[in-house]
Amino acid sequence: MNLLDMQGLSRNFGGLRAVSDVSASIESTKITSLIGPNGAGKTTAFNLVTGLLPVSSGTIHFNGANITGLAPYKIAALGIARTFQNIRIFGNMTVLENAMVGLHTRSRKGFFSAAFKLPGLKREEAHIHREAMKKLEFVGLNGMANVSAGNLAFGRQRALEIARALATEPKLLLLDEPAAGLNTHETLALGELIRKICGLGITVFLVEHDMELVMSISDRVIVLNNGKLIAEGTPAEVQCDPEVIRAYLGEE
């Protein structure tokens, strides 16, 4: 069963077509990687799916619903979360507070509950605290809840971003180059974490340049070059595709 369907997806920047007529599907509860040379359109495709950029043409369906043109917060509320190439944590907040931010899409209490300190607000705050701690424990940060996020080592900041995304309770998690800047040990741990996430029933859509990581954890691989889809299949199939080899190496 497909969780995400992109049909004829395109995005123009003036005369440049960053994504060109891409049609691809992401299967539910699987790990799908989107790869390609620098400038291939991978992050642009992620930005289209999450509503950070409007599509120029084409449609995006998620869990059976047309989400084309929806605002990012509405897409997040439907169950799509993401991380970014450049880490975007709140450095002056604690690790726990960063994780709790991710739960705002599931919060039900509003202004009046806060203003009048209604009993339900305290219950919800306690629930948010518990759930955030569970996400920190899941990514291996439970012992650092009260540490300032800006003081974390780079690899742990990556883990915190993933914990915050998981706190939104997504059905689909988009990870944009999560291995960038990680050492070999951290990359291996990241691969295990991504498998654990998929084991929870969460579908993972990954943009990554680390081919060893991609080929070791992916169920399916989609390849873009110059904004166009040039191949898709299992890791083994993609690795042997002549057009993919040309895109990366310049020759067959």
Q: What do these coordinates show?
A:
The protein is α/β, with parallel strands linked by helices and 252 residues long. It has 2 domains: 1-79 and 171-252, P-loop containing nucleotide triphosphate hydrolases (Rossmann fold), CATH 3.40.50; 87-169, Rossmann fold (3-Layer(aba) Sandwich), CATH 3.40.50.300. Helices cover 38% and strands 25% of the residues. The protein has helices spanning 42-49, 72-78, 95-101, 111-115, 119-139, 154-166, 184-199, 211-217, 235-239, 242-249, and strands spanning 2-13, 16-27, 31-35, 57-62, 65-66, 80-82, 172-176, 203-207, 220-225, 228-233. It has a 6-stranded mixed β-sheet, with helices on both faces. The chain has a 4-stranded antiparallel β-sheet with strand order 2-1-4-5, with helices on one face. Helix 3 packs across helix 5 (119-139). The model is unreliable at 109-116 (pLDDT under 50).
Annotate the secondary structure layout:
Blueprint: E1 2-13, E2 16-27, E3 31-35, H1 42-49, E4 57-62, E5 65-66, H2 72-78, E6 80-82, H3 95-101, H4 111-115, H5 119-139, H6 154-166, E7 172-176, H7 184-199, E8 203-207, H8 211-217, E9 220-225, E10 228-233, H9 235-239, H10 242-249
Parallel strand pairs: 3-8, 3-9, 6-7, 7-8
Antiparallel strand pairs: 1-2, 1-4, 4-5, 9-10
Helix pairs in contact: 3-5, 3-6, 5-6
List the main descriptive attributes of the protein structure presented here:
Rossmann fold, single chain, 10 strands, 252 residues, 6-stranded mixed sheet, alpha/beta, 2 domains
